[in-house]
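Appendix B. Raw example, untouched.
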Amino acid sequence: MDPYRLGLVSPRIHYFQLVARLGSVRQTAQVLNVAPSSISRLIKALEDEIGTPLFERVRQRLKLTSAGELLLYHAKVSTSELGRAWSEINDLRGLNRGGVSVTVVESVARGLMPTALKAFWERHPLITVDVRVAGSQQACDAVAEGDCQLALAFDVQVPRSVRKIAAAMLPLGVVAHPESRFAGRKELKLFDLSGERVILSDGSLALGLPVEEAISRSIIDLTRRSRTNSIGLMIELAKLNLGTVLQTRIGVEAEVADGTLIFVPLHDAKIPPRRLM
């Protein structure tokens, strides 16, 4: 579709291009079915704004000045690029080809994204998906700042400029070795962790501060063995039976499925569920 009809090109530039092509205000007016005076006013307003004449009259025809030729060249390039953009957007809307960028937290990158991408590419094999890993707030801010189109993050304040599409509440739980004393339990309370060597998220992860605050308010005797911003490291330490990890199930689905680790949900008022959005 014509970029002008889409409203992507201003009337002044559109009229200017037609006058340049036809060499006559009157002929342009006939083509557009508007009064010649309307076109003359728009061209004059454009010249006034630019600060230099765009046309000169030569033998009853309008000829572009050097400034006019320069403007026409760039106007044609811009109009062509807008037309190409519209065509590519149509392809993207039809999901024929195109790309999307996504920023996610590490646990989502480990857990949900591979399966989600597999299902997506089975339906839309020509769409490229760029995935970046960041903290929860950074992921949300990336959408607000235009660095990506989508984000998956935990427990963030969503800016007004960002639309929240969906959210799910996920219980926090214990991720531990199959030989842990928690094996076989259906659920746990925070006091059940008394005496455990725990591996915690640090403050750069959305989970870190709420968990540490909950532990500090309790009278439970917990030994912090490690604090890290790496979900991958936490999982590897749990697999070696070097401590108990407090996490959601997101990011450990594969290990739980193959029996390498167990996940037991925590149902305790001191530690509310996490919101993935």
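End of appendix B.
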